[in-house]
Each structure stands twice: as C-alpha cells, then as structure tokens.
Amino acid sequence: MLDQPTNERRLTIARAMAEAMQQEMQRDPRVFVMGEDIAGFGGIFGNTRGLFEKFGKERVRDTPISETGFISAAVGAAMDGMRPVVELMFVDFFGVCFDAIYNQMAKNAYFSGGNASVPMVLMTSTGGGYSDAGQHSQCLYGTFAHLPGMKVVSPSNAYDAKGLMTAAIRDDNPVVYMYHKQLQGMGWLGTEPGATLNTPQEGYTVEIGKAKVVRAGSDVTLVGLAMGVHNALKAADKLAEEGVNAEVIDLVSLVPLDRETVINSVAKTGRLIVIDEDYHSYGVSGEIIATVTEHDVSKLKASPARVTFPDVPIPYAKHMEQFCLPNPDKIIAAYRKM
Amino acid sequence: MQPTKEQSLWMYENMVVSRRFEEAIEKAYLEGKTPAFNMANGPIPGEMHLSNGQEPVAVGVCAHLNADDIVTATHRPHHQAIAKGVDLKRMAAEIFGKSTGLSGGRGGHMHLIDPAVNFSCSGIIGESCGPACGAALSRTIQNKPGVAVAFLGEGAANQGAFHEALNLAGTWKLPVVFVIEDNSWGISVPKAEATAVIRNDVRAAGYGMPGHYVPGNDPHAIFDVAGEAIARARKGEGPTLIEAETYRLAGHFMGDAEQYRPKGEKDALFAKDPIPKMRERLLAEGCTATELDEIEQRADSLVADAITFARESDYAPESDALTAVFV
Ligand SMILES: Cc1ncc(C[n+]2csc(CCOP(=O)(O)OP(=O)(O)O)c2C)c(N)n1
Ligand SMILES: [Mg+2]
C-alpha cells in the first residue's frame, strides 16, 4: 500500500470534496459556497480549501453563525436559479435550523407540484470517535433520511466523495452530503487511511442512489456506510482468516436507498449484519433489516443483527465513547451469535 | 459602582485561578498529542476551548452573584464556571473524563453542569440565552430571589436564539442579564465581517432593554456596568444587554494554527494581558505585593490540588455510558 505508483493521485476526502466544488464552480457560474469558516480558513474539516483563493468572497462566503438565516437563504437562492453549496459545520447543529432544511428545502418542489426546484447541496460533518462529546459527534443519518424530499449521501472514500459531490451539485434536487470527520484525512482528529484513495483529476459523477458491493463474499452480508464500511471491511478481513467469506456493501446513498443490492446479496449469503454509527433505534439499521425481511424472509438463515450506537447521548470520556461505538470485534461477535 | 477592596481581591484571585487552571489544562491536553497532533489522544481528548484573556468579564459579572443565581455559559466555559463557584476538583475531573467529574465523564469540557451553584453550559452557539430566560421566569413565578446571567460570544449574537430570547426577556421583563464576551472572533471570522452593527449593545433597543458596551477588557469597568444591570434585575426592573470587549489569547481551540490573525495581533493582546494589568492596579491602589503573592500561591495550590484530584481519580466503568439518560 505504501508504494503507490507515481501517476496516482491519492486524495483525502477533504481534498476530493474541494476539487469537485472547484471544478463545478468553474463549469457553472450558478454554483457558490457558503458557511462558517469556509472561506480563508478552508473549512474546519478542510473541505473548501483553496476555493476562496480561486473564486473570491462573492462566491465563497463566510457566514455569520446564523444557520437558519443562511441555509434558508440557500433555499431562496436555489429556487431563484442558483446552485448553492452550504455547510452546516457539524450535523449536530441541525437543531438550530431544521425548519429551513426539512420544511423548506425538502418540501418546496413537492408543494409546487414539481414546478419549482431547490437544487442545493447541504454538506455537513458527522461522526465521533475522538471524544468531542454529545453535541459534536452524532451521525443522525436516520433523522435526515427519514424525512421525505431530500437526497442523502455519505461517502466512505475519496473517489466516491468527489463523484458524489459533483453529482450532488448537478442534481436538480436538494442533496444532504454527510461526510464523516474521521474519514476526512485531517490528521488532527485521527483518520481512517482506507478513505484516502486514487482519485481522477477530471470531473466525474458517482450515481446517487446506487450502493456498491465493495467486497464479494458468500457467507454473510455486512451493510454499512461511511465509517461503517471500514469497520465492516476490517471485520471481513478477520473473518476471512477463519474461512468465513463476508460480502460488504457500501450503501453510499440513503435516499434514494438501493434496496435491491442489499436484497440480492442477502439472497446469496442468507445472513445480514448492519453496521451503523447512528443511534440504534428508529434508524438506518432497522430500515435495512425491514427491507430484507419484508422482501423474502425465507432467504434468511439466521436473525439479522445490527451493530450500532446505543440509544444514549454520546459520552465524552474516551473509554465510554469507544465502548459504545461500533467496531470490527463487535461485528465479528454478532456474526458468531448467528 | 466600584468594588470594595475585598471584591477587587476576589476578582483578582478568580482571574488567577482561572488562568492557572487553563495553563495546567493546556499542559495536560498536550500530553500524548506530540509529535503528531491528534485530538483523539492523551488524557484530555476532544476539543479544548481555552478562555485565557477573557477572565475579566467572568469575574466582573460573577462578583455580583451568589450560588442561588443562575449562570448559563458557552462552549468556552472555564472562566465562567470558576467565577460562578463550580467545584474546581470536580470540574477538572470532568475534563479528564473521570468518575469523580461533575457528570462522571459523560459531558466533558463543553458540558459542565453543576446544579449546586446553578451553573450549566452548552456547546451549541447561542443556546445559553433561552435557558437563562426560563430560569429567570421560574424565579419570578415561584417568587424566589435570584437573577440569571447568560454568557455568549459576539458571534453568538447573530444566532436566532439570542434574538428570540432577548425579545422574550424584554417582553416579560425577566430578571436576566445577557453578557456578550466580544473577543472579536468567531473561530476565523472577524466580528466586523459577520455582524451588521459595530457594537451589539445597540441591539438592546430592539428588545426594549438597556444596552451597554464596556471597552478595555477591564474587570473594574465590567464590575461597574454588570453591578447596575444585576441590581436592576433584582429589583424587578427587567433585563439588560451588556457587550464587553475582551481578548482571546489562545486559538479558537487547541491545535488552531490561527493563520487568520493579522500579524502582530497576538503580541499586542498579550501586551494588554488583563492579569498583570490588574496586579499593577491593585498595587497602585495600596494592596501589598505580599498580599497578591499570597493570592497567587493560593491559586496555584488550588489548581494543583484539582489537577492531582483529577489525575488520581478512577475512570467510571465503561458501561456507565449507558446510565443517567433518564433520572
Ligand atoms: C449553532 C452552532 N453553530 C456553529 C457552531 C460552531 N462553533 C463553535 S464556536 C464558534 C464560534 C463562536 O464564536 P463566539 O460566539 O464569538 O464565541 P468565541 O468562540 O469567540 O468564544 C462556532 C461557529 C456551534 N457550536 N453551534
Ligand atoms: Mg468571539
């Protein structure tokens, strides 16, 4: 892994996101970016680095700490023909601005009978694992995916990060782009090396609504997104040592959800484990399991399992947080119980 | 309103305790984070927002409060917590994630809650304002004495919650004081680039309450203005908005490279460090060096004891993470 061919461009997710925004801004004058500390600072998580220097403050705007104001402003701008990309610095802050998101951004197309569109991207950071406690570590995938009218994606690697951002900006619908902090490639909060991948220079899209089988296997299906994919891949490596072949699915997109890829995989393996760093109840893990059981329960050789964050606020103390977070060992333990 | 000598010394002592506490926290925070800075490592992981330089606002306000009064604070809460009388040992232990901490390690540095002295804080910007109104309302309904003080940053004064809370307080004439610590930065964004007015005190007019701006990061000047506001609230005459100029001597959080600061700004701020300035003032007013040295020594040992307590305390069992969601 260390000896990469020199012609490869290994990018972090942060750089891949910034590159996609930069290319789309060059292509399309309607695209502009706004959020807190996204101009000169380049984004707290590095994902807008270089944009301000290239496009200036008209198109790369630092906002006041007024999320309701600037996110609903993005809705208005999008409906008036612009293509805003706005950042909600941590997804945890959705509490101060959710009306703009789920009542306006997500519903105006429907309320217009499809005559109006809201082509905007709301990018927001998710995830914990570095002891940032209960208001800065949540995932809230299920919260966003639950509410109709917005697409929801979350990349697990830089290749998908770039292609999804490009697709999100070009999409005529609102897209919530959730990036996991510990996959960003920012050393200062620890990073998952597997997220940094060879990423083509030229623009390309990754389809929103299509899951990926990132490892083929026949004995059990491990389904996850973002950090969950990396935990699943590590668990699959360990299981392979025992002769168990796990198939790993990266959901990539929660809305639309590629149910078919999951159903087809479980039809083959007969076993399903969902890995989700979001809270246990009423979330993505329940939705995936319901998808499979509703379709054809006879395909299952064992009860499905989920490895998730328990239904408690995220604790600060490192040992407590690590105790709660999904990890490869918990996935293996879930498999053993099947 | 001028402080008595006793009050002046109280303010000085709390400023020094706060500073020494943060110096100790800073040192401990960096353990395990070198050579490569990774927030997740060391005895104090996660984000760390230091308040050094901002001590004058906390002490100038809290000098007028007692344990019954309420303070709601921010993501940068140490100086405010110390001035309000939060137990230093339990606060240190919380920051180290120990079982003896205020929440047993569940909350951490941005979530210090100490009901014994009516102190709480939140990491969500602007969210100190509403709860202060509610606490003030509760005292009014219960006919109990006590005022509430909400601390916030100048960046938070652009949050909807701030404006809604001010309107509520103004409409209901609540015994609450809003105190904006204007350190002129919201992370990397200068106040002037994010705020439609030069000074936030003028915003008070929109909510039917008096507004005051206190320049100079001067504990005595803050004491004066806050004293009037808190007395007014105690008399049932309603809320006040105060914006006080202050200095953020540290980065936004530890690990912040602060490249957004204009050249020389940090040096200029350190040259105006409020703690040596206050010491000089106290000496000029007739306090003896011995008296002040004693205060500093007392602060040192208080902090040393708190840090030792924190380090020597045990971690709670990891499964404690699953308890205390409901009482
Ligand atoms: C609602 C919300 N938006 C954004 C943030 C991220 N954030 C944390 S501190 C901060 C700057 C706050 O500035 P200010 O209110 O002036 O306080 P200071 O940090 O200067 O003490 C921001 C934007 C947050 N915690 N909550
Ligand atoms: Mg500030």
From TrEMBL, chain A:
Keywords: Oxidoreductase, Pyruvate, Thiamine pyrophosphate. Pfam families: Transket_pyr, Transketolase_C. InterPro entries: THDP-binding, Transketo_C/PFOR_II, Transketolase-like_Pyr-bd, Transketolase_C. Its cofactor is thiamine diphosphate. GO terms for molecular function: oxidoreductase activity. Residues 11-186 form the Transketolase-like pyrimidine-binding domain. This is Pyruvate dehydrogenase E1 component beta subunit. It comes from Salipiger aestuarii.
UniProtKB/TrEMBL annotation, chain B:
Its cofactor is thiamine diphosphate. The keyword Cytoplasm does not apply. Signal peptide: none annotated. This is Pyruvate dehydrogenase E1 component alpha subunit. The pyruvate dehydrogenase complex catalyzes the overall conversion of pyruvate to acetyl-CoA and CO(2). It contains multiple copies of three enzymatic components: pyruvate dehydrogenase (E1), dihydrolipoamide acetyltransferase (E2) and lipoamide dehydrogenase (E3). GO terms for molecular function: pyruvate dehydrogenase (acetyl-transferring) activity. It comes from Salipiger aestuarii. Pfam families: E1_dh. Keywords: Oxidoreductase, Pyruvate, Thiamine pyrophosphate. SUPFAM superfamilies: Thiamin diphosphate-binding fold (THDP-binding). The keyword ATP-binding does not apply. Residues 14-315 form the Dehydrogenase E1 component domain. It catalyses: N(6)-[(R)-lipoyl]-L-lysyl-[protein] + pyruvate + H(+) = N(6)-[(R)-S(8)-acetyldihydrolipoyl]-L-lysyl-[protein] + CO2. One of its GO terms (biological process) is pyruvate decarboxylation to acetyl-CoA.
